Amino acid sequence: MRILILFLVLFVVACGSSGGNKEEDSGRKAAENNTSLGQAYMERQQYEVALEKLKRAVANDKTYAPAHTLLGILYETIGEVDQAEEELKLALRYAPDNGDVNNNYGAFLCRTGRGDKADPYFMQAVKDPFYETPQVAYVNAGNCMLGLGDLDKAEAYLRQSLRYDDKNAAALLAMADVSYRRESYLRARAFLQRYEAVGTTNEESLLLGYRIETELKDSTSANRYRQEIFERFPDSHAAGQVAGRD
Predict the structure, then answer these.
(1) CA 66 to CA 68: how far, in whole Å?
(2) d(Cα 43, Cα 26) in Å, to the nearest integer?
(3) Helix or strand or coil: residue 10?
(4) How far apart are CA 84 and CA 227, in angstroms?
(5) Angle, in degrees to the nearest 10, between helices 119-127 and 134-148
């Protein structure tokens, strides 16, 4: 089962001046404004205009980490992975202790097959006393460890995430997966039910539900998941996995 890494698109754009001279303050303000515009265009999937605004933001102030982070997100979205990494590293250079910046780079490493190098960035993220969503970094770290097959570390991080927010849908689904892999099927069912109460069922969650109920020999529940997969995702990987099974 493939669990997607959450990628927090942050940004509370900083207010006020940069504390420098008037020219520096003006550059920072312009960078903030263009970053806000760039994010708004990204959310509307107007990527060409977003790219223009974000490039303008870093031209206004090359040290403004939020602009580099959003450029990194945008470049990855349009398939320019090398440029994405360059921008995310620049964000780290200018804001090395920032929780959002570290979380985003760690998640990027996981998505690009370097999960074994991501852990220090997630742990740096949660050290930031001003980071507002440590549960996101913990769930990202847990999913990263799950992808590497380290169930002990995955569970530890996911439980940390749930301590901050016991209704964190991503953490609940990942915990269901961890429990399933440990062959703790009743516990896996319980976590999946908690996920279904707060999250949106999707191909991955339905396939996991089918597998859990199959192991528990509850054919009625397993067939319910199977039927929903066929109805909602007829051409999916999940449909292929359950096809022909009782």
Answers:
(1) 5
(2) 26
(3) coil
(4) 40
(5) 160
Structure tokens at 163: 């301590």
* Residues sharing a CB contact under 8 Å with residue 98, sequence separation 6 or more, in sequence order: 65, 91, 128, 131
Distance CA 127, CA 139 (A): 15
Cα angle 58, 76, 85 (rounded to 5 degrees) comes to: 65
Rounded to 5°, angle at Cα 173 from 172 and 177: 115
Do 138 and 165 meet the contact criterion of CB atoms below 8 Å apart? no
Length of the chain (residues): 246
Is the CB of residue 3 less than 8 Å from the CB of residue 180? no
Task: Pull the structure tokens for residue 129.
Answer: 């006393």
Which run of H or E residues covers position 85?
helix 81-94
Tokens of 238: 């999940």
Domains of the chain with CATH codes: 1-95 (1.25.40.10)
pLDDT digit string, tens, across residues 153-203: 999 999 999 999 999 999 999 999 999 999 999 999 999 999 999 989 999
